[in-house]
Prior knowledge:
By secondary structure, the chain is an alpha/beta fold.
Amino acid sequence: MIFDFLGDKSKAVIAMAHIGALPGSPLYDADGGMNKLVDDVVGDIVGLQAGGVDAIMFGNENDRPYLMQATPESLAAMTAVVCAAKAALRLPFGVNYLWDPTASVAIAAATGAAFVREIFTGVFASDMGVWAPDCATPARLRRNLGQPGMKFLFNINAEFAHPLDQRPIELRAKSAVFSSMADAILVSGPITGQPADASDLRKVAEAVTEVPVFANTGVNLSNVEEVMAVAQGCVIGTHFKVDGDTWNPVDGDRVKRFMDVVNALR
């Protein structure tokens, strides 16, 4: 029940390739410019692929404070970086423009990505204000751009936010599959790099059987066996970085050690 682009892989690991801050963002390195953005993310891709991950997802985690709607310069820049980095890729890839699902679909279509991760459903009180995504618009864009095979990975409990919808998490997950045609359900912790609540992950996995359920944050060597006993896979970024710091480059040795454990579980 994993995605067609992963073939017969089980217990799939999608690794994050965090792009540096994009033009217009407060942390953008104007001296390094676009060339540095490409060089840095390609370096991470090389380490992730050598370590044996199953797929890679480009994200703009460095664009703090985050936007709810992409700007023209950041949308263009992220598309350009992904296109330039594709030459180094040997794996399926996806994209996630935080926190704009429509922009994510546009970038994915322009670059040939197989999947998109975003907050597509729900209402949240967040660090960015009241958060009310609109799943219908990116779904229609996917159709209008001729990309019906592009998978939507629904992060149902957003980081940096609290749901205003008080339904149990497993009901929200099941509803997202029914009403909004989620291709996968992702369960997150409260902040990037922090694990999802184990009971939340289990409840969702037991309730949702039609599509894969992934742990979206905080998976590491100490909890991967527990996570993979419940979920079909995970998205992992922070643990693969030097010293386990989200903002550092990828540490190839950490990737390999982690994937050795995952491969033993498959």
